[in-house]
Design goal:
InterPro entries: GAF, GAF-like_dom_sf, HATPase_C_sf, HATPase_dom, His_kinase_dom, Sensor_HK_TwoCompSys, Sig_transdc_His_kin_sub3_dim/P. This protein is α+β, with helices and mostly antiparallel strands. It is 48% helix and 20% strand. The chain has three domains: 2-170, Beta-Lactamase (2-Layer Sandwich), CATH 3.30.450; 174-336, 2-Layer Sandwich (Beta-Lactamase); 419-553, Histidine kinase-like ATPase, C-terminal domain (Heat Shock Protein 90). The protein has a five-stranded antiparallel β-sheet with strand order 2-1-5-4-3, sandwiched between helices. Helix 1 packs antiparallel against helix 2 (30-42) and helix 12 (421-435) packs parallel to helix 14. The termini are far apart.
């Protein structure tokens, strides 16, 4: 009678434990509830629950124990590796009940400082065909063996645990889906505002990394597999020069752009198709990675990559790739809308600039030209002397003003951020004006943009910059003029000032470099200078190669 009453009590406790376990929605509290309930229900001194990863390796993701003190656990060290009896439970998921652990052929022994255990009861934690892990109990109280009833109780408890773990997994998956949806809404909302593209890309990388739990995320831009650039990074230091030096044309991103399909790898370092950004300074060592296409209605505009450190491969395997793939597609559409908005704004700006340029050309320049013609007629009727000289100077000033207005008209038509040669020269002169007490006068003559070849451009800019630096440091001039002239097959850079002039024994360091740059193109450097009268520097190179003029773009 007492035995029947005990069984009824144990059955009631089992039902209470199953209800309590089933009420958990997260994996945080489930393992602890299971091991405590199992230890009490079957009278085991020690109990443990191991939850396995989803990948093919099936290693431990979570391991919770009951019955051992924290000092003993600290001395034992690492979790079980899944060998011996535990490995057999993983490979053959069915109940295993033993009188003596050491007597079983698969017994692997205990690590140092591990308490000695004798009787053993192990059952798989599963639902249908999916095995989540294993529950095992050792050392039945009173030195007895585990009974068939104990095994039934453990199996029932493990089944409840399997359902609870599956529910918790589904709940986590639902939360992850909600997080990805929220991230998509956030990115769409951000891009619906007036957000620059670079900030938008950074936001995409930041949110993708945060929601996926990845250690590093980065975005590669471009629709040509041979012309891709690593643009933004989340979770690692940013060195743009080093990032742009990575050979992205031979990377997984290039493969994604070519095929339009997402790619996942377990280890970047060993995959021959991958470019491992772990080589960049201060980046963590990366292992698993997934690369997802940023696909819009017009095609693939880039790739977003998510990567984890090798020890966090389970987080990579738990991520459903459909969620970040959908996020990447929505982000790409939002980026396309943002770029279209920027294009419309740029077009509107260029239309306004074009209207201003037409007004300057058709009205202002024509009126100045008419004034100049009138003054030219007048100067012929004025006797030689100071009035005539002033009239001729006014005509020259009007002509210079017309050239300045024409240059401004051309600048109005240029896109912001353009790097054409004329713009670069103007930037150098503006930069020099910021350090001088005066503004150099700039004259650009001839088809500079279309005639100066790319091979000459770096030396031309270097000469202009060096010459203006010398004037700023040594000349003490009140006027400076820079002229860049393209005349048929010759390029001339003339920098003239009215400063102190050069001493006879001047040490040529920067001047020597200018001579070398001229000689490299078959040209020359000519310096005309006298004390107190200023200096005129002429850097002259031919624009011919094999008898034909070199046309630059």
């Amino acid at each position: 009678m007492q035995g029947v009453l005990d069984e009824q009590v144990r059955l009631r406790h089992l039902l209470d434990a199953m209800v309590a376990i089933a009420s958990e929605l997260t994996l945080d509290g489930v393992p602890t509830r299971i091991v405590r309930a199992a230890s009490n229900l079957v009278g085991a001194r020690y109990a443990a629950l191991g939850v396995l990863t989803e990948g093919p390796d099936r290693v431990l993701r979570t391991f919770v124990h009951h019955g051992m003190g924290s000092d003993v656990v600290a001395q034992i060290g690492d979790w079980p590796a899944g060998h011996g009896l535990l490995g057999q439970l993983i490979d053959e998921p069915r109940p295993l009940r033993l009188r003596d652990i050491a007597a079983h052929p698969a017994s692997y022994g205990f690590p140092e400082h591990h308490p000695v255990m004798t009787s053993f009861l192990g059952v798989p934690v599963r639902t249908r065909e999916h095995v989540f892990g294993y529950l095992y109990l050792t050392d039945k109280e009173g030195g007895q063996d585990f009974t068939e009833v104990d095994e039934l109780v453990a199996v029932a408890l493990a089944a409840a645990a399997g359902v609870a773990i599956e529910n918790a997994t589904l709940y986590e998956e639902a939360e992850r889906r909600q997080a990805w949806l929220s991230a998509t809404v956030e990115i769409t909302s951000l891009l619906s505002e007036d957000t620059p593209t670079d900030r938008a890309l950074q936001a995409v990388a930041d949110r993708a990394r945060s929601v996926s739990g990845a250690d590093v995320a980065w975005v590669v831009s471009g629709s040509d597999p041979q012309d891709l650039h690593l643009e933004v990074v989340a979770g690692a230091p940013v060195d743009r020069e080093a990032m742009h030096a990575l050979p992205m044309e031979k990377s997984l991103a290039s493969l994604v752009v070519r095929t339009g399909l997402p790619v996942s790898v377990d280890d970047l370092a060993t995959d021959p198709r991958a470019v491992d950004p772990s080589s960049l300074d201060d980046w963590p060592q990366l292992g698993p990675m997934m690369a997802l296409p940023l696909r819009s209605g017009s095609g693939i505009e880039g790739v977003i990559s998510l990567a984890w450190t090798p020890e966090r491969i389970d987080a990579f395997r738990r991520l459903d790739p459909r969620l970040p793939t959908s996020f990447a597609e929505q982000a790409a559409l939002a980026l396309q809308v943002a770029r279209s908005r920027e294009d419309r704004k740029r077009m509107s700006l260029l239309e306004d600039r074009d209207r201003i340029g037409r007004d300057l050309h058709d009205l202002v320049i024509q009126r100045l030209f008419g004034v100049g013609l009138g003054l030219d007629s007048t100067v012929r009727m004025v006797p030689a002397g100071e009035p005539a000289r002033r009239l001729r100077q006014a005509i020259v000033d009007i002509d210079d003003t017309i050239k300045d207005i024409r240059r401004a008209i051309f600048a109005l038509g240029a896109l912001e951020g353009s790097t054409d040669l004329q713009t670069e020269i103007e930037i150098l002169v503006d930069r020099a004006a910021a350090t001088m007490k005066l503004r150099p006068k700039l004259r650009l003559e001839g088809p500079i943009r279309t005639t100066v070849p790319a091979s000459v451009t770096p030396d031309l800019l270097a000469v202009v910059g060096e010459a203006l630096t010398n004037v700023s440091r040594h000349a003490h001039a009140s006027t400076v003029e820079v002229r860049v002239i393209v005349d048929h097959d010759t390029l001339e850079v003339i920098v003239a000032d009215d400063g102190l002039g050069m001493p006879q024994d001047v040490l040529e360091s920067g001047l020597h470099n200018m001579r070398e740059r001229a000689a490299g193109h078959g040209g020359e450097l000519v310096i005309e200078s006298e004390a107190g009268t200023g200096t005129t520097l002429t850097w002259r190179v031919p624009l011919v190669d094999g008898g034909s003029t070199i046309q630059g773009g």
